[in-house]
User: What shape does this take?
Amino acid sequence: MIGIILEEENMKRVLTSEINKHIGEEILLEGWIHKLRKLGGISFIVLRDRAGLAQAVIDGAKENDKLKELTTETVVKITGKVVKEERAPHGAELHDAKIEILSPVKEDIPIAINKKEMNINLDTLLDNRPITLRNPKQRAIFRVQREVLDAFRSFFEEHDFTEVNTPKIVCSGAETGGAEMFEVKYFKKKALLAQSPQLYKQIMAGVYERVFETAYVYRAEPHATSRHINEYMSLDMEMAFIDSWMDLIDIHQDLIKYMVEWLEKHSKNDFELLGATIPKYVKIPQMKLKEAQEILEKEFGEKCVGEPDLEPKHERQICEYAAKKYGSDFVFITHYPSKKRPFYTMDDPESPGETLSFDALFRGVEVTTGGQRLHLYEDYQEKMKERKMTEEGFEDYLSIFKYGMPPHGGFCLGLERLTEKFLGLSNIREASLFPRDINRLRP
Amino acid sequence: MIGIILEEENMKRVLTSEINKHIGEEILLEGWIHKLRKLGGISFIVLRDRAGLAQAVIDGAKENDKLKELTTETVVKITGKVVKEERAPHGAELHDAKIEILSPVKEDIPIAINKKEMNINLDTLLDNRPITLRNPKQRAIFRVQREVLDAFRSFFEEHDFTEVNTPKIVCSGAETGGAEMFEVKYFKKKALLAQSPQLYKQIMAGVYERVFETAYVYRAEPHATSRHINEYMSLDMEMAFIDSWMDLIDIHQDLIKYMVEWLEKHSKNDFELLGATIPKYVKIPQMKLKEAQEILEKEFGEKCVGEPDLEPKHERQICEYAAKKYGSDFVFITHYPSKKRPFYTMDDPESPGETLSFDALFRGVEVTTGGQRLHLYEDYQEKMKERKMTEEGFEDYLSIFKYGMPPHGGFCLGLERLTEKFLGLSNIREASLFPRDINRLRP
Assistant: This one.
């Protein structure tokens, strides 16, 4: 078979998305047979490559004979002449196409990944990730995710933040002192998988003032909800020389604006394919936890005033309220009680028992946690004493506060939750290529 | 003290690197007291911020009184008038400066981080990372590292690669089938920390054709050498629809060219500060392992022909040779023997026992490993049988070869080694913010 198109072997490959720029030319496509339809002496192939789909028309007995043995997912080279065809993808198709097998299929693929909707349940989707990811909608999800990640990095680079990579094998926990962390057998020692770069990003704020990190973190929480996975991408930032915690809210506002504009520019087609809507940016409304609880009571009849946190249901309701009242898909909830926030959180000097901290909720779920940190050594000593924490395992971290730490704070976003909510998916697992949860350790 | 400069409170902060744009103006600087010199009634402060250093002159008894209690690393605000001064950093300094303490120092800093050379040994450097990183040269190392990372990502984005994030908690090993991998207690199961994204990046090449990932990987190798750390940043790429393994060599060539130009553009000052040289790009020479061994024998009297790999000493020698003969700081060594390469490596059909694989050496050390992979299911079955491997734990991975995988290959670079060699450091640990090795689990 190779001999047949040998003469075209030096042809440069064209991507499916580019075929309409080659009307009238003989071109070479490479990809997977996405669909194959035989109608007597004529066959139609829809070819899939990284850029999308394109149609090729195979005419004549000789070429059609070759198709007998072929099934979808066979990897092929197709040469042919580009002809305008309004009904085909990209408004053109290949005529008089010739086909060469690059890599055969061993078994028929068990899932119809070439359908717009695969109509399989979540477990089947995830169990078969290596092939279900080939579905065009699945591919689109993670292209959007990559753009969200890119937007985050690009925003902070433009704002003079330095990217850092801090260790994930650690010996102490940032928030829980080791609870709900995975244990690693580290040679003859016991280590833990980092649940957050918190302590390290504060250290690095003492070095570069402004830092960000995009990396996996690990939580050994035995949840089995649609909101939790145990390995997730944490988008972290930390920033020194803030005048107040409001600097953090302001830069978060700007980040969302930037992200939304970025997605408008880079991901419009993928959002369309997925039937999702890029949120319109409006100034994000902001309310204290207490105020949110009063709204929940008044508007939704929820008796929650005085509770230390919002329940998942309350997060959905307050987002509903913010969308209706302010036209915003995001809302900041601030001033969480001191006892619900980690020891490094700064209390509000004007409101004892409350902290200078915030969450951002997005379309019904918390996507960001942040706040101002303590920066004086004495304040850490006092707070840790109050909580009956020892300094053991925190010595390196605490040392920075002895040698001059400016006022600072930061926040972190969960990339998978963000992607899930941008795209209106129904489970965080759909926004992780190979999710890890209490029951799932493969693929 | 706060009252004194209250009137300037709304002044916008200027970075030290920008002061010469404000000659004659009253400005506000914020940062750490890097150096403090008192000469009778006049004092000189060198202030350090994220952008660099600037000098301020403090005159008058009242302001100088404040300095009595101050030591280096105190975090301060300084206001003053910018005056041209050729001998000061950035050609200007602040006169008539007024100072306000933002955050005090609790103890004198135990290491003189304000010296050009700290003159401490590696263990002291690393044990005290949270503060030694504040040293200007240390900061420069990781600014360069971030640019290397940025260049890698930017290059592959420009070449239509999709960034992916694959799991680091896995149940099987890519290369060793579990040997030399860290064990994780994953709820009630046993899991491993990924030593490479190899299997996942091949899966993803079946989805997006071209993918890259920049993430930590973990090796439980009990080495204690200057070349190994146990948690490192792996810069991975994988690319489908290659015509031959030479496509990988070609794109690696282009990557190095791009990286060198990127560093010329973004990191010139940091290289200067560190006394390091950005390599000049020349076409990278390429030789088979056998040829390299013949050169080693002929030029250096090393009897190594027939050995399955190069020893560290040989890597240094062959780099020396390539630098002298071709003027190149990089050299490709190709065609490693099949038995030394992982099971997924493609053998050279024209040279049995040898593989279509390569390493890139850079200034004496291996920084890249890559090659073409098998893409036919039968070939995997055969190779795994040959090696007496079972398919257990590899089922998800192997499934992709049943359903059409194009010819593909890829490579990975170690970010810390690359940084180390770009900057002429003497130990890989100097190129990791918080290195992990057999003895080191903190800070």
